[in-house]
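To illustrate the input format used throughout this study, we show a single complete record. The first block contains the structure-token representation of the backbone; no residue identities are included at this stage. The design step must infer an amino acid for every position from geometry alone.
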């Protein structure tokens, strides 16, 4: 069996979230890993069996080629993207990249243009597109009268990684974290017509509740209009310390409520019945499996979030940030 030869760039938390699934794939092997932190790259080499261990992506690209690698998987923080993708493209390497892909939209446009010119297969880590519960919602929506209200929420605490606490390095919670639900709205309803957003600070005290450098939004609300009379209100909050509300979507149709509890279950309510459907699969594994299979077979239809489509979600998140700053409605 032909195996996809993978290089890993970034061996931190997101890589570890993918690791068990990647090791289960019998049609892929990790042959090289790279991370500036010695402890992490050595652990990654040990855990994956990779014989080639590099200091960073530059070191990896300088020592590998299309003869030794088929693809790279990139798990680095948003502001760490420099030539990480463009060098892979120049080498003809297909690539997977975690979200958000970058804080630099000009760079993202360049990556998209170059990867499309090379005909490379790309995938972005919007894992929920592969989730069985989202498949059920996507199949159910066309069966009902179009239109209605969608309430989406991701409210919790502050992740511990340093770059999450500064808006300049993460883009804020909507860009860094709740972009999953933002992308899900596009996946379910298509391209937006407009977005209006507000934000607030003051609940989280820098140096007390968070890092002294904390300067991002405690919470925000984005109102997004779609075609067919659909309006979504998407709230994000990172101020919650000890309790957490239900996160996910509540989709109110004319004759049904779809209550999606984030990556856990889906409660479907009609006039006559209530059904509670539990998640039955690992969406991160499905995401990785699809990327590996797509590269091996050339079947692009397996990828539900290629770079170009994911960039639309990133630009929507940045448009919401612009609306927060200006108080204006952003039209598309």
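Output of the design step:
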């Amino acid at each position: 069996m032909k195996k996809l030869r993978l290089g890993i760039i970034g061996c931190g938390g997101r890589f570890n979230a993918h690791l068990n699934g990647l090791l289960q794939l019998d049609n892929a092997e990790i042959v090289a890993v790279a991370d500036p932190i010695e402890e992490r790259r050595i652990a990654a080499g040990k855990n994956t069996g990779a014989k080639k261990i590099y200091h960073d992506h530059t070191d990896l690209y300088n020592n590998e080629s299309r003869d030794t690698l088929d693809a790279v998987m990139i798990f680095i923080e948003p502001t760490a993207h420099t030539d990480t993708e463009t060098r892979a493209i120049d080498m003809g390497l297909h690539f997977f990249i975690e979200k958000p892909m970058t804080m630099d939209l000009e760079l993202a446009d360049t990556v998209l243009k170059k990867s499309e010119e090379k005909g490379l297969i790309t995938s972005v880590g919007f894992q929920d597109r592969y989730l069985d519960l989202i498949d059920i919602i996507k199949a159910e929506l066309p069966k009902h009268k179009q239109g209605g209200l969608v309430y989406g929420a991701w409210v919790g605490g502050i992740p511990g990684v340093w770059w999450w606490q500064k808006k300049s390095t993460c883009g804020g919670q909507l860009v860094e974290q709740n972009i999953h639900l933002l992308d899900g709205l596009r996946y379910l309803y298509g391209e937006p017509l407009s977005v209006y957003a507000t934000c607030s600070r003051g609940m989280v005290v820098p140096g007390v509740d968070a890092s002294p450098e904390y300067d991002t939004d405690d919470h925000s609300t984005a109102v997004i209009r779609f075609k067919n009379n659909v309006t979504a209100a998407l709230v994000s909050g990172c101020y919650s310390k000890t309790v957490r509300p239900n996160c996910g979507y509540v989709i109110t149709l004319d004759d049904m409520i779809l209550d999606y509890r984030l990556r856990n279950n889906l409660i479907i309510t009609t006039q006559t019945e209530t059904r509670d459907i539990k998640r039955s699969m690992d969406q991160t594994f499905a995401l990785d499996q699809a990327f590996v299979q797509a590269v091996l077979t050339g079947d692009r239809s397996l990828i539900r979030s290629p770079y170009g489509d994911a960039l639309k979600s990133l630009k929507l998140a940045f448009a919401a940030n612009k609306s927060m700053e200006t108080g204006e409605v952003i039209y598309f």
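Structural context for interpreting the output: The radius of gyration is 20 Å. The chain has a mean pLDDT of 97.
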